[in-house]
Amino acid sequence: MKHYENFPLVPIARGQGAWLYDFDGKRYLDAVSSWWVNLFGHCNPRINAAIADQLGKLEHVMLAGFTHEPVVQLSERLRKLAPAGLGHCFYGSDGASATEIALKMSAHYWRNNGQPGKTQFISLQNSYHGETLGALSVTDVALFRDAYGALIAQQATVPSPDWRDAEPGESAEAYALRCADLLESHLQLHHAQLAAFIVEPLVQGAAGMAMYHPVYLKRARELCTRYGVLLIADEIAVGMGRTGTLFACEQAGIAPDFLLISKGITGGYLPLSIVMTTDNIYQAFYADETARGFLHSHSYTGNPLACRAALATLDIFEQDDVLSANRAKAALFNCIAAPLRDHPKVRNFRNTGMIWAFEVDTPHADFARRCFSLALQNELLLRPMGNTVYFMPPYVIAEDEMHFLVGRTLKILEILA
Ligand SMILES: Cc1ncc(COP(=O)(O)O)c(C=O)c1O
Prior knowledge:
Elements: E1 12-16, E2 19-22, E3 27-30, H1 33-36, H2 45-55, H3 69-81, E4 88-92, H4 95-112, E5 120-124, H5 133-137, H6 142-145, E6 156-158, H7 172-190, E7 194-199, E8 203-204, E9 210-211, H8 215-227, E10 230-234, E11 258-261, E12 273-277, H9 279-285, H10 304-319, H11 322-336, H12 338-341, E13 346-352, E14 355-360, H13 367-377, E15 380-381, E16 388-391, H14 399-416
Parallel strand pairs: 3-15, 5-6, 5-7, 7-10, 10-11
Antiparallel strand pairs: 1-2, 2-3, 4-12, 8-9, 11-12, 13-14, 14-16
Helix pairs in contact: 2-10, 3-10, 7-8, 11-14, 13-14
Pyridoxal-5'-phosphate (PLP) binds near residues 128, 200, 205, 234 and 237.
């Protein structure tokens, strides 16, 4: 709160498309999709209409012992869209709860299968999977963990295939394969205790948009199968088309044991998360004894308004052929962003799908905060992580808005780099 003395909160009155407006009518281009959730712009008429329609029918009913049309439709549509074999949906309310559900369900799966010793997890270095206690145990960000160290189970990490860490001359693919070998060494030693490996496919968002080669996921899938460890793909940030395919796992041609979806699934409108899993996992819980079942509930699980927003979001993907349109948009943005990529103070300019990131050589230790503040003065919402600036715009961003984003960012670099 003290920081707000120098960086006051920005009160937002309304949103339209890629723009947010404050109470004085000042506008801000939402270049981070309001923490990576917004896909089709603020106040999207099609999503608004779907929610309004649902509001007139059923705002909410508990999902225990009851069900409703939007949640059934959404589950069936996701089953068709997700990698093969992920036919079951478990609903939660936000990203961290999806992580909790997948961790609990994977350990419980082994217990139900007569292997109660498999209770440990591994994640990648610099991973981020949410900030509840279970999710923090597989989140490797000291700033978020340290204060709660005594409360968090200690879990191991394995090296991240982030290509920025490759040796000079080593390709992203070769580095990813080297990291996969290190994953194998860990699995060889510890598989008897391991319930699951949780991973952010292709892009580790909170690690500073660390990007890596899909071959890592392919190898991770093979290794997890070979060593009897479940694979959890956390697509909370990278799913819903963000990396260029509807789900990032598709680029590696793999199906995980658990697929976590949240953020963009409702187009950025309402909190919702879904843990998709396989029939194999489902069957391990299918029993008369209640204790074998998976007991995990949230009051607003599978909220009908959120499910309708999600269905409207999937309609837009289908009707507008969003994935193809985004490929063209990304190519265009890469051309427009060339002056940034070639800027002498910019390093590691990178792009995956509709995510761009780069490091800035800056003399300012508090670059992130200064950049955020200067961006606001320049009608931009940017939230750098350390000296990493990233763009994760809503998919509706137009060509003139791309020019605006790049032009204003260059202006900011003139001052801060
Ligand atoms: C990869 C990943 N997993 C989990 C989460 C947690 O989601 P939520 O903030 O909805 O709890 C996030 C949030 O940024 C994320 O990026």
